[in-house]
Amino acid sequence: MAKQNLSEGRNWYVVHTYAGYENAVMRNLKQRIESLGMEDKIFNVIVPTEKKIKIKGGKRVEEEEKIYPGYILVDMIVTDDSWYVVRNTPRVTGFVGSGVYPVPIEKKEVDALFARMSVDKITHTINLIENDAVLIVDGPFKELEGKVSEIDEERGKVKVLVNMFGRETPVELDFLQVKKV
Predict the structure, then answer these.
(1) Which of 2, 93, 131, 163 has its C-alpha lying 20 to 30 A from 22's C-alpha?
(2) Dist. CA 178–CA 181, nearest whole Å
(3) Which residues pair with 49 in a beta bridge?
(4) Which residues pair with 98 in a beta bridge?
(5) By the 8 A CB rule, do 55 and 171 touch?
């Protein structure tokens, strides 16, 4: 990195890693920062995650899910030394930026990301989209088939159009009560 005046101060940068190794890279990089005495240039390393509710074995399970798989965030001042420490951490493929120069994340993006990470209200993750055919597997409409008309991830509900008495009737169900056909 020939450009000496790289650092415009402390910023958050996005670092690309091998997918699935984000936590290992974070741990590794934190150890390298300590052992190489870079605490004055590299301040924090995080893997952005958010809480999601998924259905596993018919039960609701709360899970931490990576917001950007394959990426970590590093709060640092970019100098030749600090760039080298991050860049040469095992399983780091590089900084996100133009050419070899890392481009910091804008403040509003960082704020939005941290807001998303600290949300207490958990959204439900369901792999259904509108017009999907579903089978109702629980409740008074069990065994009936229908078509998804609306999805409310926040409440964990899905509105299904069920054919009853010769016409489509909307029925609101819990995500747990339907299965994709």
Answers:
(1) 2
(2) 9
(3) 66
(4) 101
(5) no
**Three-class SS state of 28:** helix
The answer to whether 13 and 68 are in contact (CB under 8 A) is: no
Q: Count helices and strands (H / E) in the chain.
A: 3, 14
| Contact (Cβ atoms closer than 8 angstroms) between residue 52 and residue 124 | yes
- Residue 3's SS3 state is coil
Q: What is the 3-state secondary structure (H, E, C) of 119-175?
A: CCCCEECCCCCCCCEEEECCCCCCCCEEEEEEEECCCCEEEEEEEECCEEEEEEEEH
- List the pLDDT tens digit at each of the 181 positions of the chain: 434 444 468 999 999 999 999 999 999 999 999 999 999 999 999 999 988 777 666 677 788 889 999 999 999 999 999 999 999 999 999 999 877 789 999 999 999 999 888 877 666 667 888 999 999 988 888 899 999 999 988 788 899 999 988 899 999 998 888 988 8
- pTM, rounded to two decimals: 0.68
d(CA 90, CA 72): 13
Q: What are phi and psi of 133, to 5 degrees?
A: -80, 135
Give the C-alpha separation, 93 to 149, whole Å: 42
